[in-house]
Amino acid sequence: MKYYGEYVLGLDIAAVVSALIIFFWGNWSAEPVFVIATETIFILVLLAISFTLLYYVKIGKNNWYLILSLGILALGAGLAFMNWFIGGVVALIALLFLITSKEVSKGENIGILSSYVGFSILAIMPPLGALLSLKFSLGDYPVVATGIGLILYGIYLSLKAKRDVDIISTGFLMLSLSFLFLAPAHELLKIHSNGTYGIYDISIVTLSSITFFIFLINLILFYFGSMSTDKHVELGYRNLQKGNFEEALKHFQEAHKKDPKNEDVLNGLGIALMKLKRYDESEEYLRKLNQMYSNDSYLTNLGNLYFRKGDIERARKIYEQVLKNNPNFYNALNNLARCYMEKGEYEKAKELLEKAINTDENRKAAKINYYFLLTALGKSEEAEKYRGDLRKVLVE
Fold first, then answer.
1. What DSSP state is assigned to residue 2?
2. Which residues, 6+ apart, have CB-to-CB distance to 157 below 8 Å?
3. Is there a domain that residue 245 lies in?
4. Residues 216 and 329 grouped into a single domain
5. Beta-carbon contacts of residue 126 (< 8 Å; ≥ 6 apart)
6. Taking a C-beta distance cutoff of 8 angstroms, is the pair 233, 263 a contact?
């Protein structure tokens, strides 16, 4: 697991298991034991949340949303010292920003949001009851049932996700740890210091623990699957480099069975099928890849497919689109030049190839094309001189 994820998970498991033992098998008859146990849970889970948050920040793409959420979280922590209720509400808002700060698709976000709302309903009732001097009654049972239903629905939706499994699962680990943290916080902050945990706290402890272990298993299974997928992807690209396109295709197809939305797999499938001249199948994967991920290389590969199919105009438009976003992208410069060479527009091709060579002098494709361009332009003497320099490059 990348970024020391195994150590983070180890700390998380230790925190949750310790909390469960203390919650359900602790001796609550003596108040000092209750206080010490509660403080132990508080410290362990706080450490687990902190390291899980750091891990969450490390994986996937971060954005300004994440920075905003951390700022709101710090504000909530500060406000809690002045007014615990307002500080807690602000912290809940920060948690919402945190768990939605990663780029995941709409369906997975709905799952996370549903569980978040369910936990929030359960979490807000004890401090709200303390603030308004409300006592527990039969009316609280439907509230608890609503919260539980939303949590379970969110878990169901998110387990169906096949994309961003590590981000979603880690988000749920952080979500469950954050709410597991609330029961001891209620006691230590004297929100309801009665030496026992009420139905809302018990519901939160139970559900957050169940949620934690569900997504812990989901994350572990994902990483074991990823190891197998990564092996096939590595062998696939290695065979592509060697020109063993049939063998490369087999590895990418095996990887695709395990992880059908993996961008490296989709890209490899598209390239292998293109090399085998199975253009329609290649287009299917490359189009899907570019719909799911924004990447100059992937879009250029789609342009390469159209070039190989003989659709020069369509390829040209794609290369120009890439260069609009990234004017110095080597492959698009070189391949757009080839489009102009096919159309006989040699001066435009020359300008692009010179720019490509200046962009990356160590790569050879643009230099080879430049030699052929000089020949096509009838500049024999210049072409021969360039050919001599080109031989040195190719030998190196």
1. G
2. 107, 108, 110, 111, 114
3. no
4. no
5. 186, 191, 192, 198, 200, 201
6. no
Do residue 6 and residue 119 come from a single domain?
yes
The two structure tokens encoding residue 92: 């809940």
| Largest pairwise CA distance in the chain | 98
Task: Look at residue 213 and tell me if it is in a domain.
Answer: yes
From first to last of its 396 residues, the chain has per-residue pLDDT tens of 555 677 888 888 888 888 787 777 655 555 666 677 777 778 888 888 888 888 887 776 666 666 777 777 777 767 766 666 677 778 778 877 777 777 666 666 788 888 888 888 888 877 777 667 766 677 788 888 998 999 999 899 888 876 778 888 888 888 888 888 876 776 666 655 444 456 777 888 888 899 999 999 988 888 777 777 888 999 999 999 999 999 999 999 998 887 888 889 999 999 999 999 999 999 999 999 999 888 899 999 999 999 999 999 999 999 999 999 899 999 999 999 999 999 899 999 999 998 998 888 778 888 888 888 888 888 877 777 666 666 655 444
**pTM for this structure?**
0.60
Give the pair of three-digit tokens for residue 286. 């490359």
Q: Which domain holds residue 326?
A: 321-396
CATH number of the domain encompassing residue 344: 1.25.40.10
Within a domain: 34: yes
Q: Are residues 357 and 213 in the same domain?
A: no
Q: Is the dihedral of CA 276, 280, 285, 286 positive or negative?
A: positive
Nearest CA-CA partner of 365 in 394, 326, 343? 394
Q: Is 231 domain-assigned? A: no
If one counts the domains in the chain, the total is 2
